[in-house]
Amino acid sequence: MIAKFKPTWMVDTVYNISPTQLKEHGIKAVLSDLDNTLIAWNNPNGTPELRKWMADLHQAGIPLIVVSNNSAKRVSKAVRNLNLPFVSRSLKPLSFGITTARKRLGLKKSEVVMVGDQLMTDMLAANTAGVRSILVKPLINTDKWDTQINRFFEKFVMKDLQKKYPNMKWQEDLND
């Protein structure tokens, strides 16, 4: 059961995931959580690093789609300045949102990766959907109240994962 939470990779930040490395792994599209993965949950404007990473993905022909549990109104407002497509009310940890985004792109499971900052939602949803995943560290150390509950339980899940998979470690990038 604990394997359902295991990420394929653990990378410090989304900005370190290079399009070249994604292509080396056969990845043609990135699906990403929104809050504390792409943007700080309390700062929807994003950062210059995010905009550069998005431009690098675009230049490499790798689409980026936000897969969020938030409402369409909330996600639309958050990504308006970033001009990103999205799937709202994705029902993570269920696979619904990931599968919807993948099918929208017409890609196989092996051709997409889900990026997120939570084991309990993002990684579990990716594994349930049968796609690879990248766990990133949250952009900031504060969360909305509902996410704080997940973070509490996540500590125990991470401890069990590291016990079962001792080689599981944070990496600088996908090839570290």
The overall strand count is 6
Measure the end-to-end span: 27 Å
The shape, in one word, is: globular
Number of helices: 6
CATH topology: Rossmann fold
Low-confidence stretches: none
* CATH structural class: Alpha Beta
CATH architecture level-2 label: 3-Layer(aba) Sandwich
Report the CATH superfamily.
HAD superfamily/HAD-like
Order of helices and strands: EHEHEHEHEHEH
- The share of residues in extended strands comes to 5-15%
Task: Briefly summarize what is shown.
This protein has 176 residues and is of the alpha/beta class. It has helices at 19-24, 48-59, 72-79, 96-105, 119-129, 145-164, and strands at 9-11, 29-32, 64-67, 86-87, 112-116, 132-136.
Furnish the topology, listing elements before pairings.
Elements: E1 9-11, H1 19-24, E2 29-32, H2 48-59, E3 64-67, H3 72-79, E4 86-87, H4 96-105, E5 112-116, H5 119-129, E6 132-136, H6 145-164
Parallel strand pairs: 1-6, 2-3, 2-5, 3-4, 5-6
Pfam families: Hydrolase_like
Protein name: YqeG family HAD IIIA-type phosphatase
InterPro entries: HAD-like_sf, HAD-SF_hydro_IIIA, HAD_sf, PGPP1/Gep4
Task: Give a written overview of the molecule.
By secondary structure, this protein is α/β, with parallel strands linked by helices. It has a single domain (2-164), classed as 3-Layer(aba) Sandwich (Rossmann fold). 38% of the residues lie in helices and 13% in strands. The longest helix is centred in the C-terminal third of the chain and has 20 residues, at 145-164. The protein is globular. 38% of the residues are buried.
